[in-house]
């Protein structure tokens, strides 16, 4: 019992690492550009599929991660530049438009990669199980995923808090016009942040596809969970995405374990509490 | 001119609707029934979208919960329609009372929370297979049979749906023209101003949400007797977005708009999927096109056209 509880904690944390990759991009794009991009789940799935093909052709997992991410960056740029840009700050229009984009991406992916669950092949040194102290045995891949998530989180945090680009982005989140008035090219900043978000989503697809597998519908499933992360953490907050991912990841793992038929219901809990106590999320601010 | 044309137009449309099953045959009768049912769902979404300014993406939940409740009662427990249908309506409305707390948020937060709510319901329908039948759902739902009203064919059911939808449209018209409807539009225009005038905006939005959920639930009951089965697809996200899309394509804030939108979308789906496999892509492109080129919908386009004609005529 206790050992299962511990294993579920690790399961939850590794899911949290994956959710963070997706939610951080979503939340930063919203924070800076006020853009709600519902195609993020589709970016995840497409990046995963492209990474899968790369991994099968070249046998390199690292190349798959970079390739999957880069392909989504290119596509994301076009969608941003030619479609989302036209919606201004109308969130309703953004949601409908990007849902449409997600439908197209999902459908075309189905035509290319088919309807079966596919698994991104992992390198040999990440396969198999490892022993943890206390005699517990755990899949090595998911353990490394936690480390990977922590590294990406730390890198993002450093970029956001300690570099000049990060300072400009933070300033942009607070007051875009003011930043623009100081002579900083806000447009270029937007392209940069949106490319980063796309890369994170595509990379998450490859990393997640190696243990959650890729299938039609996986795009929406992961997106909704990432949305709950963002809602709980507070839109636009990187720290919120971290904390939210951890809360949702752990709840999901324990939910699947204790109440398998109602595992989706578990997501409802934190949102309900939040609606009653803090409608804008833990780190959310009044707009 | 506008009002003079309105009554004959409505009567003509009603005459066409009544005569169509005779003229068009069973295929179109079925498709039209579906168009009315989804038009009603789109209308329920539009009460929030077109009047209160809230964009809900969880209306498939109310639709599906009422459909499931009615189907399970009727099929598994042999409960008569006279009880099963109201029970479905009630179940969906009760869920609306719970989900209605989403009105504590506005804008993007409201959209995202309703998406997540909707997903929870889909997940339960999909996973709780011992009760909901999993992906197979609940099958063999009979035609409704309420004492004097005993439906025995698709054509008869068509008339029943037509009558219910017309009654709803009339009620809806009274509702949006009432002080309540005016208050909703006032909140959409400026919530702070309505508050300072003494209106409890949160309570009004909550009430609108519940009424809208009840309307969606009614559509769910009509749906399950038409479809004769219900599975998790009814609760899925695409149903919620498509309902919103129907309202937007037809024209938000109107009564005919959602029905026109429903007819366009369902006709398009039927037509496209008969020769093209990538149906979902076409749907996606419709979403994109609607946002970029027709944000006011068909009703808006007609209005603009008419304004231009009137301008040309008088000037």
Question: Which structural traits does this protein have?
Answer:
heterodimer; A: 287 residues; mainly alpha; ABC transporter involved in vitamin B12 uptake, BtuC; two-stranded antiparallel ribbon; 2 strands; B: 315 residues; 78% helix; globular
Notes on the structure:
- The complex is a heterodimer of chains A (287) and B (315).
- With 287 residues, chain A is mainly alpha-helical.
- Chain A has a single domain (2-277), classed as ABC transporter involved in vitamin B12 uptake, BtuC, CATH 1.10.3470.
- Chain A contains 11 helices and 2 strands; from the N terminus they run ααααββααααααα.
- A two-stranded antiparallel sheet of chain A has the order 1-2.
- The longest helix of chain A is centred in the first third of the chain and has 32 residues, at 2-33.
- Chain B is an all-alpha fold and 315 residues long.
- Chain B is 78% helix and 1% strand.
- Chain B contains 13 helices and 2 strands, in the order H-H-H-H-H-E-E-H-H-H-H-H-H-H-H.
- Chain B has helices spanning 2-52, 59-76, 81-99, 107-127, 129-132, 154-177, 179-189, 191-196, 201-227, 237-250, 256-273, 279-293, 297-314; strands at residues 145-146, 149-150.
- A two-stranded antiparallel ribbon of chain B has the order 1-2.
- In chain B, a hairpin with a 2-residue loop joins strand 1 (145-146) and strand 2.
- The interface between A and B is large, with 45 and 47 residues.
């Amino acid at each position: 019992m206790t050992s299962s509880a511990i294993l579920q904690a690790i399961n939850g944390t590794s899911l949290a690492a994956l959710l963070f990759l997706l939610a951080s991009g979503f939340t930063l794009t919203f924070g800076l550009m006020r853009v709600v991009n519902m195609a993020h789940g589709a970016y995840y799935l497409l990046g995963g599929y492209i990474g899968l093909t790369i991994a099968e052709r070249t046998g390199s997992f690292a190349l798959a991660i970079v390739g999957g991410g880069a392909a989504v960056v290119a596509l994301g740029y076009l969608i941003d530049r030619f479609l989302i840009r036209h919606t201004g700050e109308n969130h309703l229009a953004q949601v409908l438009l990007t849902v449409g984009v997600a439908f197209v991406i999902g459908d075309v992916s189905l035509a290319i990669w088919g309807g079966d669950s596919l698994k991104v092949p992992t390198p040999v040194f990440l396969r198999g199980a490892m022993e943890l102290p206390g005699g517990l045995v755990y899949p090595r891949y998911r353990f490394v995923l936690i480390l990977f998530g922590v590294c990406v989180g730390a890198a993002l945090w450093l970029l956001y808090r300690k570099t000049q680009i990060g300072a400009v982005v933070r300033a942009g989140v607070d007051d875009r016009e003011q930043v623009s008035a100081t002579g900083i090219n806000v447009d270029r900043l937007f392209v940069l942040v949106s490319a980063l978000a796309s890369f994170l989503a595509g990379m998450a697809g490859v990393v997640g596809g190696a243990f959650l597998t890729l299938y039609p519908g996986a795009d929406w499933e992961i997106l909704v969970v990432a949305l709950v992360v963002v809602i709980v953490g507070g839109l636009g907050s990187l720290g919120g995405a971290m904390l939210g991912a951890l809360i949702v990841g752990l709840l999901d793992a324990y939910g699947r374990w204790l109440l398998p038929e109602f595992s989706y219901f578990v997501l409802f809990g934190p949102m309900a509490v939040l609606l009653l106590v803090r409608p804008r999320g833990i780190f959310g601010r009044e707009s | 001119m506008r009002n003079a044309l309105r009554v004959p137009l409505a009567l003509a449309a009603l005459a066409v609707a009544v005569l169509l099953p005779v003229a068009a045959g069973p295929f179109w009768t079925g498709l039209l029934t579906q168009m009315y049912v989804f038009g009603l769902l789109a209308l329920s979404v539009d009460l929030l979208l077109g009047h209160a300014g809230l964009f809900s993406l969880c209306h498939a939940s109310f639709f599906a919960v009422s459909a499931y409740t009615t189907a399970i009662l009727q099929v598994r427990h042999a409960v008569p329609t006279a009880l099963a249908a109201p029970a479905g309506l009630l179940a969906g409305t009760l869920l609306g009372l719970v989900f209605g707390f989403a009105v504590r948020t506005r804008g993007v937060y409201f959209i995202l929370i309703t998406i997540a709510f909707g997903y929870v319901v889909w997940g339960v329908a999909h996973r709780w297979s011992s009760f909901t039948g999993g992906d197979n759902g609940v099958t063999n739902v009979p035609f409704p049979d309420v004492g004097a009203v005993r439906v025995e064919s698709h054509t008869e059911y068509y008339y029943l749906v037509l009558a219910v939808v017309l009654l709803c449209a009339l009620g809806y018209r009274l509702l949006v023209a009432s002080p309540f409807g005016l208050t909703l539009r006032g909140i959409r225009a400026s919530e702070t101003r309505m508050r300072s005038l003494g209106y409890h905006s949160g309570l009004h939005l909550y009430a609108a949400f519940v009424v809208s959920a009840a309307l969606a639930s009614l559509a769910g009951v009509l749906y399950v007797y038409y479809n004769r089965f219900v599975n998790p697809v009814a609760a899925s996200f695409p149903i919620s977005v498509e309902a919103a899309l129907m309202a937007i394509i037809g024209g938000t804030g109107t009564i005919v708009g959602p029905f026109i939108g429903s007819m366009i979308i369902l006709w398009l789906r039927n037509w496209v999927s008969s020769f093209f496999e990538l149906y979902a892509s076409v749907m996606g492109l419709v979403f994109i096109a609607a946002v970029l080129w027709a944000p006011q919908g068909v009703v808006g386009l007609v209005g603009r056209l008419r304004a231009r004609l009137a301008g040309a005529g008088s000037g």
